[in-house]
Amino acid sequence: MVPRIFAAVLIAELLGSLDAGVTDTGPWLCQPAPRCGDQPYNPLEQCCHNDTILPLNATQLCVPNCIFYPCFQHCCLESLGSQNQAVVTFKVPGIKPDCRSSPISRICAQVRTPPDRPSARSDFI
User: Which segments cross the bilayer (predicted)?
Assistant: First the structure.
């Protein structure tokens, strides 16, 4: 009886020591790398924006004096009568950016659009 218990303990110890040097590789081992177009990318350091791989800290110009982070935000241009404004919204993971339903990050400066009228010589002076 004692030899059987000893053998069981010895086998359990041997089996437990086999994976002692293995580090946890996490869920990436069994999942394919995300792709941007035909290129794989590391989502811990990069994102895919319009089929272009960008670093997570990349910025782009939405309108003059209004930058946004394309990995996390979306630039929406809105028209309100004779005024245009840019609204920066948050991207919701797993959902295609939608200017109407995405949470607003900030509203950029409004730009007044002059009404259409014929040109006059005084406009050039």
Answer: none
User: How far is residue 59's CA from residue 57's CA, in Å, rounded to a whole number?
Assistant: 7
CB 34 within 8 A of CB 43: yes
The structure tokens listed for 90 are 């948050």
Structure pTM? 0.61
- Domain for residue 83, yes or no? yes
According to DSSP, the residues that pair with 53 across neighbouring strands are 48
Residue 86 domain-assigned (yes or no):
yes
Is residue 6 included in any domain, yes or no? no
In tens, the pLDDT along 70-99 reads 999 999 998 877 778 899 999 988 788 788
Domain count within the chain: 1
Q: CB count, 10 Å around CB of 57?
A: 9
> In terms of residue numbers, what domain contains 80?
49-114
Tokens encoding 122: 């005084």
Query: Is position 16 within any domain?
Result: no
Q: How far apart are CA 36 and CA 12, in angstroms?
A: 46
